[in-house]
Amino acid sequence: MFRWAGLVVSTLFWATCAYSESLLTLDRALRAENIQVQRANQNVLVSQARRDQAASGFGPQVRFNVSGSRTERRQSGFKQRFLGEDYSITLSQPVFDRPRFLEPDRLDALTERSMAGELRTLQERRLSLLQSFAEWVEALEHLRLLDERFQNLVQRREQVAQLFNSQRVSVTELLTVENELERVRVELVTTQATLARTESLIDSLIGSSVQLDWTPVPMTDVWAFDDLKSPPEPQQIYPALVEARANVEASRIAVNQAIGTVLPTVNAELAVRHTNIGANDTETELVDTYTARLTMSWALYDSGDREARIREATLILRDSELALMELERDLQRQQRTLEVEMQRAEAAWRAAKAERDSARKLVEAANRSFEVGVGDLGDSLVALDRLIDAKMRVSSTWLSGFLAAVRIAENANQLDEGMMLALSDLVSQ
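Request: output the structure for the sequence above.
Response:
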């Protein structure tokens, strides 16, 4: 695994060893219980079974036949009874059958496609899991910041209540604080609903109920993506591309199979027969017959059926090639877009940090002015709101960069178990 993949995840949030183990357990539960992942695995097993079936057509086939009979013949007062027996063993071996001989290769390609499809499905589910998980972490961070805002407002209400009792502030200022407290309560309820929704999404992805009881800390002030190394070219390892290339290969073999139908088929056969049954079910002496046979079958005319099949297979091949070309171009565009998203997220994050630092100074100045009686309570509350909002934007923009990095990791086929485990302590703000 590339070092950068671990760095991306390790900077998401703080985690203890138990947290890392829990996330790994979550990933293992995803693989074990997600229905889409299970079905993708079953498709691989089915493809392998079909390939084994086709491979058996290369080898010899042995058939053993046995029959017994009791025959009674009556003719002109003559009666004959006898017990018939007939044993035979036949060995057959395909000598030349191009469509049959190419079938295992075609199914090998389809098996590779199924395996890539299984990995693609798992990667997509992991990506969805990480996206939902990041959204859950962001909601927790917002919940923490809202709680910080709420506690500050509670303290401010107590201060204003004391000032109101001493008739130093008007009832309007007291009501302003009360209204702000009510608004924050609504935001807390909304954020808790978001937490519940993301937990439900995670449950649906895994296929069972999970308990998210981990405690994150504030986002780091360090942009953790500066040290990221460029991932390998996604065109080489992206599961969807491997899947598309395997499909092209299977289609190419199918064309050769269709062309092969204009050629003859040749089969060899060895047979041994032991019987006492003659013509018209008459009794004969026991006879052992040994037969070696070479047969050739060649369809000379079929009203254009084979030509149509060749044309169809060729068109399917061309379509699969075009689909591969389209996927390669889309992936290249997606990679460039994700890199731009990371750059935009970093710029927005740095702007949010600057706004946060400015808001902190504004809050401090507004609080000092209010305490000495020369400031307005509204100004203090507005400054506090600006600070909390700026902190939220720091968290949101940082996580936007994280999600872009995760998608880049998905394109580079790096969303594996090691990435899920690569969590380390995060330096808090």
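DSSP finds ten helices and four strands in the chain.
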